UniProtKB/TrEMBL annotation:
Gene3D superfamilies membership: 1.25.40.620, Gun4-like
Span of domain GUN4-like: 95-234
PANTHER family, sorted: TETRAPYRROLE-BINDING PROTEIN, CHLOROPLASTIC
GO cellular component: outer membrane-bounded periplasmic space
Domain GUN4 N-terminal ARM-like repeat: 5-87
High-level lineage: Bacteria, Bacillati, Cyanobacteriota, Cyanophyceae, Nostocales
GO molecular function, one term: tetrapyrrole binding
Entry protein name: GUN4 domain protein
Organism from which the protein derives: Nostoc azollae (strain 0708)
Length: 237
């Protein structure tokens, strides 16, 4: 027979973690999520409850981290929960051009960042049109006129599924913090070391140990003009 004091202690622990997850800072929430994941079905229920309460507000990277734990769970209830409440993930896949971002979402959920980076530029070229698809990169004028909704969707997917480390908006935030100084930005995000540009693909870091803002690097090889158009886009205002 199980000691009721043990049950009570476990329930109190879970309730305490639940409160910290709901009311804590992002730093606290980041620590609480794996702790709940280690508590089996009871912890999983708290994480699912957390996602449900927040599903009508724009997803943050905390939601992304929570979603990933539930997504990776072996519990049959986890799959059923996600299929019922989040059949398309936690980021609305909006597009002004009818582009599907589901494949990009799947790569980012699985943290396959190198493949996601390649697919990001492919999707951006699809948005612009067949000529861009054939050349596999964008002119700065095409970036300037890029549909706001599509750019926000791509960016939101990157931010949410990278613990807030990656995304165009993150790169913009760092760039603005450096007074728009490009030569300061490149080493800060790991695209340059001294006078040497980081060589694609082997010298880039394709996981969360990378510097903040390291990815996506879809426009890294096309020069400052494209990057400037991207980070100055109306999508961020």
């Amino acid at each position: 027979m199980t000691d009721p004091m043990i049950l009570s202690g476990t329930a109190n622990d879970i309730d305490s973690l639940r409160q910290k997850l709901i009311a804590g800072s992002q730093k606290v929430q980041q620590q609480i999520i794996p702790q709940l994941a280690d508590l089996g079905n009871e912890g999983l229920e708290v994480l699912q409850e957390f996602l449900l309460k927040r599903r009508y507000t724009p997803a943050t990277w905390i939601d992304g981290k929570t979603y990933q734990v539930v997504y990776n769970s072996d519990a049959p209830t986890a799959k059923e929960f996600l299929e019922t409440y989040f059949p398309e993930g936690i980021v609305p896949l909006k597009s002004d051009c009818g582009i599907s971002y589901n494949s990009l979402q799947q790569l980012l959920i699985h943290q396959e960042f190198q493949a996601a980076d390649l697919l990001t530029i492919q999707k951006m070229c699809e948005v612009v049109g067949q000529q861009a698809v054939q050349r596999r990169w964008l002119y700065f004028t095409e970036v300037e006129n890029f549909p706001t909704q599509d750019l926000q969707t791509i960016n939101h997917l990157w931010v949410v599924h990278s613990e807030g480390k990656f995304g165009f908006s993150i790169q913009r935030e760092i760039w603005l913090g450096l007074s728009k100084n490009w030569e300061s930005l490149w080493p800060k995000i790991g695209w340059k070391d001294g006078n040497q540009w980081t060589r694609y693909p082997n010298e880039f870091t394709w996981d969360l140990s990378a510097p903040r803002g390291h990815l996506p690097l879809s426009n890294q090889l096309r020069g400052v003009r494209v990057m400037s158009s991207l980070l100055s886009h109306p999508a961020w205002s």
